[in-house]
Amino acid sequence: MRRFTRIATVGVASAALALSVTACGDKKSSDAGSDGGAPKAAIAYDIGGRGDQSFNDAAYAGLSKAEKDLGIKGNEAEPAEGEGDPDKIQRLTSLARAGNNPVIGVGFAYAPAIAAVAPKFPNTTFGLIDDTSKTGKNIANLVFNEEQGSYLAGVAAAKVTKSKTVGFIGGVETPLIKKFEAGFVQGVKDTDKNVNVKVQYLTQPPDFGGFSKPDLGKAAAQGQLDGGADVIYSAAGLAGAGSIEAAAKAKKWAIGVDSDQYNQAGLATYKEYILTSVTKDVADSVYNLIKSVKDGKPQNGEIRYGLDKDGVGLATSNPAFTKMTDVVAAVDKAKADIIAKKITVKTAP
User: Residue range 331-343: average pLDDT?
Assistant: First the structure.
């Protein structure tokens, strides 16, 4: 699998969380097109890049599966720190010119770039994850009911807290992350109205560093722990790794996001305290889009993944969680009620 950029290491507060992100600059499309005759597909990563143990890694898992199962050649392109839309437009253009089909932008930040590039390559399918604002005949909008999975996390948090105080940390205060907050708070309050929910965002747009800096997540979690929280749910990409570290060191519960973070190798030191994770089946959405193109029936328009299709959910990898039979029962009931439309989960606080 080819990566379109060179990796530069960036130090973080804890050696256990030392992960790689990418320096700026894509290879020229002529370089990218030298991979032989196999069909090619590409993903352009969101802030934090591959190695975030969360959102981007889930997308990579889908691309990797497609390589193995479908015989395609996978290509990847990393973001640069502080980049703007012109950088994303150049990246997507290079990927499309290199013959990749589909080209998938991982995250809502790619919406303006895909809107600009897709019309220039009408025979290429573009996947846009987490955004429906930009549409087109050759654009597939891969979106999720994050609020539903977050509701289940709220139920679990309310059931396990002993201090009656839990925390939510959002990476950047955007409408997407507010969905995570809304579902979580509603799940907590519907389960136990006496539980206090501390809410904190790491950065405000246009500063998206709240998705990429573990030290910010760690500091925010420490503040919530000092304020009495004993369960912390973070929707903050790579920064969420810092909050998991802080919670684990305090021997309190952390709830992961996007990927099943209990099973992420980079977080193995802290897995004992990762109660569960709100999962988004980003991997399958990427794989399904690639397969649709290979099969000659490319997806387009809104492709939504919710609880009813197991497109979002709550991970059960931690044996400590599955032993909490009353918590699991409460979560299962809430899931059934959401699918049956007995519970409508809010998408904004």
Answer: 98
